[in-house]
Amino acid sequence: MSDHDSVLGQPARSDLMHADDRGCFGAYGGRHLPPQLEDAIAEVAEQYALAAADPAFLREYDDLLAQYVGRPSPLFFARSLTRHAGGAKIYLKREDLNHTGSHKINHCLGEGLLAKRMGKTRLLAETGAGQHGVALATAAALLGLECEIHMGAIDVAKQRPNVVRMEMLGATVVAVDEGGRSLKEAVDSAFAAYARDYRDTFFAIGSVVGPDPYPTIVRDFQAVVGREARAQILAQEGTLPDALVACVGGGSNALGLFTAFLGDDEVAMYGVEPGGRGAAVGEHAATMTHGRPGMLHGMTTYVLQDDSGQPAPVHSIASGLDYPGVGPQHSYLKDSGRVSYVSVDDRDCLDAFALSCRAEGIIPALESAHAVAYTVQLAGRYGPDAVVIANLSGRGDKDIDYVHEVSSRG
Ligand SMILES: *Cc1c(COP(=O)(O)O)cnc(C)c1O
After folding, report:
1. Element (H, E) at 76
2. Would you say residue 4 lies in a domain?
3. Mean pLDDT (the chain, rounded)
4. Catalytic residue of the set 95, 111, 126, 367
5. Which of 27, 43, 56, 188 is the most exposed place for a label (fewest CB within 10 A)?
6. Which of 219, 247, 398 to mutate to test the pocket of ligand 1 (most atoms within 8 A of CB)?
């Protein structure tokens, strides 16, 4: 048993699970770092390996998940969606019911606990729409850590409510005024701040992306989602599901659901990327469909890029999916054929958003609505004895003003 198995505690195909000693999943991943950060990241890797094998650390994490996040989250049988799809039974894994309203709190608490164990006093991260920033500021407040969030100046203006939330939770928000003043510049700025002061600081990445060991760390802290779902579906249906569906931005909620089932060859898995407004460059963020292997944010992975290898502009109606890369383990799972990657466009996402509201009384995050849209299509291809589980990664309160505006425009 390796350290990671002890975290996951479920059967998993180790050939699909483990980064090798270079931090690679097959040809993907690795640690492409500026020299001044090599020691800092090596320390994170060393300390995480110890933490993941320490029962006291895992117990503390599990206690917070139960008492603070409210886990386990329910696995809900969606009768109306099932009737609407006319095929397989549809179950929703309700990550929207977590404290702070999405799956992100799972890995933010894990990273915060790891930072504390390492003697760090400050959490540092970048954020795009502010969802990772809010979840991390929450973890920092709970654990008594300082928190500094770098955010593009345009995003600061656009995402005012999340900026206010972070500040109320005690975080410092740094507005980045360079270049395109968006996520990419925020990443560069946060990395520069980390390089200046990594002695007291833990860099808390917001998905299964970045240099090794972050794709492994974030996956391990999210794997609770699939561990619960596997036990719940066995209890509720007496059988494993036929398929799993999750949206993919960087890929953390998807790996969260998939990991405990990777060894169950009869369970099909679908990662849903944002098809946006169409297939032209800049109109979508469907990395697996339109990208090719390249380098981004310290890792080798599928990247949407222009001819000179620069990350391409991206669009999605869901800001949490608006990323030109994807976690390296996903790239490996794509090439291995274990997971299929598909896309859902903005229009079908909005239809699924409305359907989920009206049919089930659940306002989903626009990110999660991508998974709902594909799940309804997929369920229709199965018979009534089949079971499909969709990860409802977050709630849609953050999206209602935007959806109302585009719906009334027609
Ligand atoms: C951030 C976010 C996502 C996308 O991130 P992944 O790492 O791909 O999971 C999906 N859903 C919600 C609700 C989010 O906040």
Report:
1. strand 75-77
2. no
3. 94
4. 126
5. 56
6. 247
Distance between Cα 136 and ligand 1 center (Å): 14
Looking at the chain, the whole-number percentage of residues with pLDDT higher than 90 is 88
CB-based pocket (< 6 A), ligand 1 = 102, 104, 131, 207, 247-253, 320-321, 365, 367-368, 393-394
Paired with 343 in beta bridges are 273
Check whether residue 352 and residue 265 sit in a common domain.
Answer: yes
Average pLDDT over residues 253-270: 97
| Joined tokens for residue 119 | 């003697």
User: Does pTM top 0.85 for this prediction?
Assistant: yes
The best mutation among 98, 155, 218, 252 to test binding of ligand 1, ranked by most ligand atoms within 8 Å of the C-beta, falls on 252
Atom of ligand 1 nearest to the CA of 394: 13
Q: Which residues have CB under 8 Å from 81's CB, separation 6+?
A: 90, 92, 355, 356, 359, 360, 372, 375, 376, 379
At residue 208, what is the residue type?
A: V
Q: Are residues 158 and 289 in the same domain?
A: no
The answer to whether residue 10 sits within a structural domain is: no
Q: Is the pLDDT of residue 7 over 80?
A: no
Tens digits of residue pLDDT in 350-373: 999 999 999 999 999 999 999 999
CB environment 23-45: b (16+ within 10 A), e (fewer): bbbbebbbbebeeebeebbeebb
Shortest-distance Cα residue to atom 1 of ligand 1: 320
Domain span at residue 372 reads 72-101+223-409
pLDDT in tens, 304-327: 998 888 899 999 999 899 899 999
